[in-house]
Amino acid sequence: MSEKSKRPAKKKGGLHRLPVGFICVCVLPTLLLTITFTIIPTVRALWMSLWDSTALSLNPSFVGLDNYIYMFRDEYFLQALANTGKLLLVVPIITILFALILAFILSQTKLRERGLYRTIFYFPNIISMTVVGIIWSFVFHPTMGIVNTFLQFVGLGDLARPWVGDSATALWCIAITLIWQATGYYMVMHMASMDGISNEIYEAATIDGASSFRKFISITIPLMRDIIGITFVLAMSGTMNLSFVLSRVMTAGGPNGASTVLLQYMYQQGFVNGNFGYAMAITVFSLTISVILSLISRCLSSRGEEKR
Amino acid sequence: MTINEKSILRAQIIKWITRVFLILVAIVMMFPLVWNIYSSFKTNTEFLTNAFALPSGLEWDNYVRAIAKSELGANIFNSLFVVLETLCILMLCAIPCSYCLVRYKFFGVKVITTVYMAAIFIQATYIMIPLFLQMNTLGMLNNRVAIGLLYAAMQFPFAIFLMTGFMRSIPRDYEEAAMIDGCGPAGILRRVIIPMAKPGIVTVGMISAMSAWNEYPVALVMLTDSAKQTLPIGIANLYEIQKYATDWGALFAALVLALIPTVILFIIGQKQLLQGMNVGGLKG
């Protein structure tokens, strides 16, 4: 606003004429690449999801919404959807809860080495998901894994089982790995906004005799409601995205599809079975979920900014 | 006096309880990695005994085999190449673009900005099948240069989002002064904007370098020729092979090799990375 009112005359003057050539050179390459590698593929997915094209068929025919209708009769798709749903119900809640608790402790404590803890907790997040997946599949390894060795060591050897090879536990191995790698990331995000809470509020609460737990429930959580909303949605979209890599590396979707997730089923339909049209319908479906999640997070974050 | 002593004691106890709790969490966070590192020095027979046991000696041969018996050397080279290319293209394209979007009111600027903001939501993993068909049409499959280009393009929306935020906060007065001194738009960009937006640029660089180094799904689809694959794909393939060959020592050594560059980058750029998260708060 102040810019406009300050120099309205100069804007129209010769000095401020638009350097059209410069703008074209700056903006066009980026725009062209974005159109080629993001916009066109997305539009193509929408379009191709209406055709029954496969990797082999030369003349695909238009089938309208048949691919989408078929999707909800395909039991493997529904299984993948249910698995993704289970992860989305469990992983973000636990991740955000752990992240909040750790962030609260680290921002309240006056320990000298708190910076070190922050770095250590954040660390799993920078590792490649492939490496994370392989390391954790060894953690859960039936004979040489940490989990089973530990169980035997403490005398609970009966509980030992092939964690990733068992259809009852395979999905939860992925969930634990996701929580392990994401907690530190959201912790750092929470810490940043916790620093914004004035210390006086906590001091006042201390004088009133409030315990740390009480402060966490009655001060921190209510004041950070919007940020928690954002990180929660981000964690959901991260879970959807990253579960593909883990599921592929750790369990290959098995046993018997027990740990297949949405994006993995899409990959399988597209690149293993060659059903491009059907895979595109799954693409559009997953993308819609992801966009809805992102829009919610965007609304929450702009609401949070308005309040400030 | 005694009340005071009591409260000091209480504070000390709380301090130590917190410390023990945090150390336990730190162990959970770090142990899988530490375990991976020390296990990479075990012989293959040692693997079959106690999982927790430390190696009896340093089996460097694991590392030799990891590199010699796989494409790991080529994978590391490919990844380095792709990361550097991604960074070059990203910086060359996204910095000037962000500057123009922030400072000039040209035809379509609103639409273009909206397109980038919307494109943040479209993540490459979701569109990997149409992306594959697109690359196929362009004849860019199994092409390392094309992958770098693709990674850069995938980072544009986020990079532009972060950098426009940074550039908007730079006061215009500096540019006005440079203009009066006879500086053209390119000169202003190079001499005023880039130095001032440096923290934002470094953050974008860090995040992009890490995500390009670690990217798996898109590389999996685009690079099928084993000599051209990047490190995450190479490691995943190695894992598949070692499941049957059971040369765990070599596999663990390979995992450590994949970790080293990210760890170095993290130690150098920790501050920028964590700062960028507060500004951006988005992960690709």
UniProtKB/TrEMBL annotation, chain A:
TM helices/strands, residue ranges = 20-40, 87-107, 119-139, 169-188, 223-246, 276-300
Predominant cellular place of this UniProt entry's protein: membrane
Domain named ABC transmembrane type-1: residues:
81-297
Question: Cellular component per GO?
Answer: plasma membrane
Q: Which Pfam families match?
A: BPD_transp_1
Q: Which InterPro entries match?
A: ABC_transporter_permease, MetI-like, MetI-like_sf
What's a BP term from Gene Ontology annotated to this protein?
transmembrane transport
The keyword Cell inner membrane is annotated on this UniProt entry: no
Q: PANTHER family in the record, alphabetically?
A: ABC TRANSPORTER PERMEASE PROTEIN, INNER MEMBRANE ABC TRANSPORTER PERMEASE PROTEIN YCJO
The family assignment reads: Belongs to the binding-protein-dependent transport system permease family.
Q: What is this protein called?
A: Sugar ABC transporter permease
Native organism: Candidatus Caccousia stercoris
Automatic annotation (TrEMBL), chain B:
Give TM segment ranges: 20-38, 80-102, 114-133, 145-167, 248-268
Q: What PROSITE patterns does its record include?
A: ABC_TM1 (PS50928)
Where does this protein reside within or beyond the cell?
Cell membrane
> Biological process GO terms, please?
transmembrane transport
Q: Which domain of life is it from?
A: Bacteria
Which InterPro entries does the entry link to? BP-dep_ABC_trans_perm, MetI-like, MetI-like_sf
Q: Which UniProt keywords apply?
A: Cell membrane, Membrane, Transmembrane, Transmembrane helix, Transport
Domain named ABC transmembrane type-1 is located at 76-269
Q: What span is annotated as the signal peptide, if there is one?
A: none
Principal location class: membrane
Q: Provide the membrane topology annotation.
A: Multi-pass membrane protein
Give the CC-aspect GO terms. plasma membrane
Q: Which residues form a coiled coil?
A: none
Annotated family: Belongs to the binding-protein-dependent transport system permease family.
* Protein name as catalogued: Carbohydrate ABC transporter permease
Q: What is the protein's species of origin? A: Candidatus Caccousia stercoris
